UniProtKB/TrEMBL annotation:
Species whose genome carries this gene: Paenibacillus endophyticus
Family: Belongs to the ABC transporter superfamily. HrtA family.
Superkingdom classification of source: Bacteria
Entry keyword annotation includes Secreted: no
Physiological role: Part of the ABC transporter complex hrt involved in hemin import. Responsible for energy coupling to the transport system.
Protein name: Putative hemin import ATP-binding protein HrtA
Localisation per UniProt entry: Cell membrane
Matching CDD domains: ABC_MJ0796_LolCDE_FtsE
Bilayer topology annotation: Peripheral membrane protein
Amino acid sequence: MRNRLELQEITRTFEDGGTQRTILNQLSLEVAEGELVAVMGPSGSGKSTFLSIAGALLEPTSGHVLLDGESIGGKSKQERSEIRLRKIGFIFQSANLIPYLKVEEQLMLVAMLAEMDKAKALKRVRELLDKIGLSHRRKAYPEKLSGGERQRVAIARALMNDPAVLFADEPTASLDAARGLDVVSMIAKQVKDQGASAVMVTHDDRVLQLCDRVLYLENGKLNRQA
């Protein structure tokens, strides 16, 4: 089984009042297709920096990030933007839906930015909305959706361009227990169905049972604990 995401000895440092601080220290990670990995850690442990580097938003000081075996290091700003559009999906604590777009339009916008064939895009929208159980809400605006429904739309939007890797940043933080479990269960299922890799940063112990692995970010490295 191939690794769709690899982080190889990632280090990230920065200057703080004349002092060099190390946020990530030769951190390594491999995530196989169909795998959902949870990352936990206290505030200030570097989770946001980790996600930003893995998601092609921030360059590491040293080390390599590979998507489908290809390094994304040394790319221009425009090239990194293209990588994020075509290879990476993001889900955030807030669904971040565009308020004036209907559900199906949220997904079609992603397809348009990626210059996807319209007929292919419409078929993909129908398939994804069917999978997440929201076909009947395709004409609804975000304000008419529940919190759980908005997050499900965010999942479908993140999967629209069939990304290699899906990143979820505290996706259950604003949901109750039942809706949180539903959302993470859906992420796990869609990742396996699509053959993608997924990394979820979370503080929510309730959803860890749905993850293939749970890692802890400590002292700049990811550790697996029993």
